[in-house]
Amino acid sequence: MADIVRVGIVFVGLLIRKKLQERLKQKKRKARRMWVRNWISKRDTHGASNILLRQLKDEDPVAYRNVLRMSNEQFNVLLQMVDETIRKKDTKKRMAIPTATKLEITLRFLATGDSFTSLEYLFRVPECTISLFVPEVLAAICQVLKPYIKMPSTSNEWKQIQYNFFLRWNFPRCCGAIDGKHVLIKKPPKSGSMFFNYKKTYSIVLFAMVDADYCFTYIDIGANGRASDSAIFRDSTLNIAMQNNTLNMPENSVIVGDDAFPLRTNLMKPYSKSQLNNTERIFNYRLSRARRVSENAFGILVWRFRIFSRPIQLKETTIDNVILAACSLHNWLKKSSPNTYFPENAVDREDLNTGNITFGQWRNHVNNLPTVSHLGSNNYKNSAEEVRRKYAKYFMEDNPLPWQWKKVGLELA
Question: What is the C-alpha separation between 13 and 114, in angstroms, rounded?
Answer without folding.
Answer: 55
